Protein 1
Amino acid sequence: MEQLFKIFRYTTEEAKALEGQKIEAHVHDFEELIIGAKGKISHFIDFEDETVYAPFVSFVTMGKPHLLRPQVHEGECDLWVIRFRSEFMSEVIFKMYGYFHNRANVTLPGDQCFDRLMALCQMMYDETQRPAPGLIVIKQLFMTLLTIINHERPTNIQSDSANSASETYTHFLHILEENFRRNVKISFYAEKLFMSERNLNIVCQEVMQQSAGEIIETRKLNEAKNLLMNSNKTIAEIGFEIGYNEKAYFSKVFKRKTGYTPTAFRKEMKQLIS
């Protein structure tokens, strides 16, 4: 996806038009948030097939295989689909991974909470239709929407198992958030969790299909993207701030993960935002 942000709506008519059409499982190169006010979805994700009735929120992380089909329920369907690149919301994207890592589909209260979510979606959509959309305005509206979702999200959606990988992964994310700027090894996080590096990697693979090292690196680079977009710090300063003592190594890691050098990434983001 070339745009930083995209939002569109599925109506009853569009859901009916999809009936009988073949939809293949696929992966995205962007993050996707679905806000469902009416109707239902059939959602295959995390190797499970689930039917979710509105009102709900569904979050699909970049690179995760899934298949989603909007469907009419009680004669209606009304869904907002928000697609965005992780760098657009780099300040909060890792928190979203934490919120939804063990359950992609979450049912929310259908009263004023959902009225507010739908109103915010409409406001974001209206902003995108302006001749010169204000990405800062969209970003602030989106931040408000995510804050409401987190506030209303049920707190009892953790895995049933008392010593579950999900619970351990959540603790890992908390420790990571406090320490990702430091130049520390995986063993540091494993020791904080009273487990071996091997077991920490097993947990991360089970929950996110990534190693602990990959998750740590992703968190660092999300912060790097945020600083490249929203500060005037040099490449060396940004690398040092997130635990890379050598500019050349930081640039090498950044390009390997994103396909861009830090300088090229900053230039493209400025062109997209301007």
Protein 2
Amino acid sequence: MFEIQQENALLGATILGIDLTKDLKNEEVTSINQALAVHQVIFFRNQKLSSNDHKRLALKFGNLQTHPAYPTVKNFPEITILENDRDNPSKIEEWHTDMTFKSYPPLGSILIGKIIPESGGDTLFSSLASAYDDLDDDIKKSLKGLTAEHSFEHGFKESLAEPGGRERLADALIDNPPVNHPIVRTHPVTKRKLLYVNRLFTHKINGLENKESKKMLAYLCDHIQKDKYVCRFVWEKDSIAFWDNRSVLHKPDNTYWPQLRRMERITIDDINRPY
């Protein structure tokens, strides 16, 4: 069985001694699932996965989602291409959880580094459970029972503002109306409580006046991204990050621009709606 090397006290672990190009045994899948729930994001190095390998690996953990806005690998609609260079800078600067604009956001995402810049391009992850644990009791009480609106339109406002953006994303806008999720959700495996808001997709807190909603969202998002909740993954070619989309936020370090960076990602369905 493989070795687990913890990154820090709150989140992150590197899995050593496993070859993901091979078909995983049931006990390996179980152990990886357990490591993911406990460590929230897990990393692998030197994994030369083909698109077939990537898809086969992801299917071990659930059904696969497609993304309404990003290009995909030919013949693999499940594999999203995240590629940026001088002519196509990244539009994602904010901390976020993938696709919370869906009623059933993904369980997790498996991201592979295909072309890595010489400097920059790291990915940062933040623990939503640890951030919740440290909130004052009065704030925890004030958040109990509250929901927030998550919006595709809010998250992709820059793309929509581009010439032809609304036409290009017209179907995605229709298919992804705003949804509500609890601000504090419970992880279905660990049963830990988590803050479930992010700057990219969380548009407003329901039941609060606009000014109060903005103030509370800003406070919570600032709190989540404090350094003590964060681990940083430094990419190498053929490295993999597999994160629990229910329990971490993430963001890219875009200081690599204008260098070329290409990543390929699969997101995995969750059968549970946030509760």
Protein 3
Amino acid sequence: MIIVALVVFGLVFGSFVNALVWRVHEQDKKGSKASKLDLSIGKGRSMCPNCHHQLQGKDLIPVLSWLSLRGKCRYCHKAISVQYPMVELATAGLFVGSYIWWPVAFNATQSYLFVIWLLIIVGLVALTVYDLRWYLLPNRIMTPIAWLAALYAGISIATANRPVTALINTALAVLIGGGIFYVLFQLSGGKWIGGGDVKLGWLLGLIAGTPSRALLFIFIASIAGTLVSLPLLATKRLKKSQVIPFGPFLILGLIVTQLFGSAILDWYQRVFLNI
């Protein structure tokens, strides 16, 4: 039952992510037709991104509505991006995967942290979609995630066996998470890394909680970014002058670290440090 509930909630929140990303972008576009419509996050009605016709309940069923309409709007018949069902499925998958691979046995505290983590996941998926489409990490999406991350870190520190040590470790993780990218940003004048990536690094460091986990998510992000970039450069699908958004790789690194970080670090210590 828990898995089914997580799938349903994941699909629903994935649908919310699609609406959130589109509305934030349209609100920031001056002079667009959509910017004149009611695009408030809490009150605005869902609408087709092409013709802006308000959607009915039967148009808003995650994945199924897109499939039944064959990826087209019911009213203007224009294509609706495959992004919509993909984001919904990805969010549901992350919800379920987080539950299956949650690294600590569930108790009252871990249950609270898990719910906060799911909300953070929603925000991180939104940032990923936005960065992939428009090469930007908007503050209006990042700020609520920062508050959730602070709450997550606060509960983790308060319930730790050694709260002072946990606080110091979290502070160091934040320093590492954003500090490395801040230095790169300053050295390159923003050419190597964007300002949004610096802020995202601080935020993800807050969630990582320890220096080793902060270094791990940065390492995973760097490896993933390299594995994606090199084939694109080799096949000339990506020019040397072009950039690819790094935010999604940082987010991927954090998610992997959150769920598998302890196992990865334990393996590293056994194999390479003989601990």
Protein 4
Amino acid sequence: MNTPQGFPTPPFPQGPPGRGPQSTPLGAPASTPSWMPQDQPPNKSGRNTALAVLALVVVIGAAAVVFLFTRDDDETSVDSPSPATQQQVDEVLATVPTPTVTVPPVTVTSAVVDPLPPPTALAPANLFTGTRAAEVIAEIGVARGAAPLRILQALFYPEYAFAQVQDPSIPANVDEYQWRGDLSGPAPVTLTGDGDLEANLFSDTEVNWAVIPTLVETALAQIPIEGAEVSHISVQRNLPFSDAVQIRVFVNGTRTSGYLDADAQGTVINVSQG
């Protein structure tokens, strides 16, 4: 027997020692094993079951989807009624009655209003009238902070006044206040001469300031000069002639002048003209 080229000749198996090679008797066919697999026909029943289950799942899913959509439509139809059309709204509004309001006639009567007179300018305060002189002295006393007020001289003009008064905190000093509708001061006064200051001062309570309007009228009556008018009034001690407090009313005219003297209570003591 020829051995294929390139393959070694397999060795014969060796038997146990002392024993020859084993051999199969000729003529004895080789037995066929009983486990040889046989061709089995395919299992058709399992495949059919799987298809049935898949179809059932598809049917159940479709039924669920249909149920959900049907439920939404039902809820919408219950909770959201269809809106009324414009025609329906117009028909309802047409049945609502319109109220009728009757307005009575109004008669307007024109009123005639007289025009207001033009404003009258306020006349400046005349210190020769009423109690104006006394009020000015009282205002100066409050500003000076002195009671009684010690006065060296007081001068009254129709629309303004001056008063030189002692400083109560520094008795050697005299200050001047001015009244021109409003009070101003104090302004220092320079004293001259060798006279005694205390001998020249008098208290505001020594003078009857209310007699000034009467003295003005008396002076104009007793000094009958052309164009007579009172220019000013002075109140002071009549030094060096007398230590009495004197009220002097000065009268000026177009051609001449004069004055009237009275004591502190308003008693006329002298009239001079020319």
